[in-house]
Amino acid sequence: MEKSLKSIASNYGLxxxxxxxxxxxxxxxxxxxxxTNMWYGIFIxxxxxxxxxxxxxxxxxxxxxxxSFKEAxxxxxxxxxxxxxxxxxxxxxxxxxxxxxxxxxxxxxTIEKTVQMLEGFNTPSDAIAKSVEQIESQNQYSxxxxxxxxxxxxxxxxxxxxxxxxxxxxxxxxxx
Length: 176
Known about the structure:
Blueprint: H1 2-30, H2 38-62, H3 69-98, H4 100-120, H5 125-137, H6 143-168
Protein name: DUF4199 domain-containing protein
Keywords: Membrane, Transmembrane, Transmembrane helix
InterPro entries: DUF4199
């Protein structure tokens, strides 16, 4: 069963990675504004969670409707991990090797969105200037920052994965 769980999670992770990579490339080709759009980000978040849940459901289905908390979480986590690694790799290649100018344009768009958001919260202008300076001083797509971002996403989605696993677990009474 363990091999099947990993196989299911790996397959759904690959599907997720391809979907996320395609969305990144299409957004890049259509308009870089999409990559800084809040609704686009929420849509991506939903896709990640849904594919993680589908992976857990398929794992349960394979095991006659039963999955321990560990199995449910492992299935979810592996799916999300593989998907995010593929997506992160594509973004790294796209913005560091294929079109480095796009990374600078995205940085400017990120600054604009950040300023708009902070002004909406009535943030003092010196705090806004400090935030802008911090964004300007960083390369969003450097290897270190991409790895930090990936780690942050994994922590966030792991918390969601724990909730999903707790909700979807079902112990097999024959094995207890």
